[in-house]
Write a structure and sequence with these properties.
alpha+beta, two-stranded antiparallel ribbon, 6 helices, 12 strands, globular
Length: 352
Amino acid sequence: PPARSGGGGGGHGIGGGHGLGPGIDGLDDAARTRGGGGDGTGARGGDGTSTPAPVTRPPYMREGPNPYPEHATPEQIKEIQVYRANHEPGYFEKYYNREGDRLSLKVHDESARTPVQLHVDPETKAKRAASDAPPPIGEKYVDEGARTGDRAGALDEKTLKKLDEAAAERQKYIDAASEAEKKKQLLANGGDSEALRAAQQEAKTAMAARTEAAERYGETIAREQVIPEHYPGSTPETLHGPANGNDQFDQVWRKPDGGYVVVEAKSTVSTELGSRKIAALEGDRAMQGTRDYFMDILEQMDRRGNDIPSEGELAEKLRKAVKEGNVEYILVKGKVDGPRYAGYEKYQFKLD
């Protein structure tokens, strides 16, 4: 299964660094702040340095192969994971590299969540949570739902032309954003504040255009290649989500048999999934691809249905189809070879 992110909700990303800043390709780079991230406890040593307080065993931690209470809160799960990383033989090595970065975001422990990102003290080797946020509820995949395609597998020349055009547009905006960022950096230490402000605005605009081009590429692959190849005869449903792409699915398709295909599209295989706070879970976060995330998006569609009746009607149809097992919730990730289309990866989320 593909890479995930515990961060904000549902963006497509561009994948690939392209000199636009650290961490675009990295699995856990967004959480690699080494200057802290613990709980703020600790005593001052005699030389003025901070000596972390010991990580004690949480009183609610159970004995046995599964130490998590049956109804553990996200915060309790985080505390148990940190304790295990410090004290349970093999736990840290199984899930982390020596710096505390998770080896894989698709691997869960007995809590059914990805272990939290850690900060490892370089001297004492004590391990602390890198963030106060608990791990989000993780997505799961239907094994037989995984598929891949390559450039040679494009449906026809017309389709390949559309895919190449979208890939070339994505690359064009990546290059433009890179140049705008370089220009901004050159002016950063100069004395021309007006020129710097103009360059900062130019870089911001270029970054937004880059993101939009990346989104279009992933959605083009889903629309022009993946759906016709795997779900022939399906028709697109009209969606009325906000222009920023939040609180909505990327695409919804009606299959000839009456079922639905719901699509989350990403521009490259390195683009991570997002997460969102779920009101029904008292603010706990859930990853894209989970049932909690899916149902929360339907709630947002219900709200929009107050002004746009068709949006609420579609939400109700999807809710009914989920209960009947007639929804395939899929993830499509594009592949690129510079300005050319290079294929895709397709995964199916478990909605049970």
